[in-house]
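re: ur question from yesterday

yeah so i grabbed the chain u mentioned. its 250 aa long if i counted rite. heres the sequnce exactly as i have it in my notes:
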Amino acid sequence: MKKLAFLLVATLLSCEAGAAVPPGDDAGSRPDRYYSTNAEALDSLAILPPPPAFDSIEFLIDRAKYEEGLLERKGERGALAVLDAKSGNVAESFSKVFGIEINETNTPEIYKLIGNLRGELGDMATRSAKKKYFRTRPYVLYDAKTCYPEDEERLRNNGSYPSGHSARGWAVALILAEINPAQKEAILQRGFDMGQSRVICGYHWQSDVDAGRLAGSAAVAALHSNPAFIRQLDKAKKEFASLVKEGKIK
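ran it thru and got these structure tokens back, copy pasting raw so excuse formatting
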């Protein structure tokens, strides 16, 4: 994590201001999933290095991690990877470590905060780099099965680098840890594990996941200067404080 933080600072300092992501949905077309416009968002292509070439020494690490992931598909860790792959509700995935079921009834403001990040982090934070590099996914390269076959056709022609699932999982963990700092280690570990689940499932290379976390961290840093995000974050923090006062947080 220290290495990740160092890379984040270095890339944020080096990226050019005013970069814009490619055309697509943003806060103008989907305010329920985005806080930023394409012109406002941090461009992943400006802050991420290229993915390792398939004939590089660095790729040997990716291949080794893929093979390790195949072994981890059995047992409890494999079951968690399947759960992470099938879960369309990231907020639900964090509920146990957060201390309360995150949903529209229990935590409407926190739920809205996380829901509005669905496209911001899973799409916008990685869009330009995905479009540029269009990297082949592990299961496609090896013509292999994943741990969750239901998504294989949908993602077959979607770039592997960086991982949008990892970006979103890590970024949501950062935000929830800010809201509930008493559980920050457990929350961050859950967000980290969500990224590793993508390697175990065979949907992403390790370098895709590492880059996804970096893109997610950068997106969260940028969001802290976004007025709409800050307003909703403040509402979420106030809601959390009330839940603690009422004894509803475990």
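noticed a couple things. The domain at 2-9+67-245 is CATH 1.20.144.10 (Vanadium-containing Chloroperoxidase; domain 1). also The chain has one domain: 2-9+67-245.
anyway ttyl
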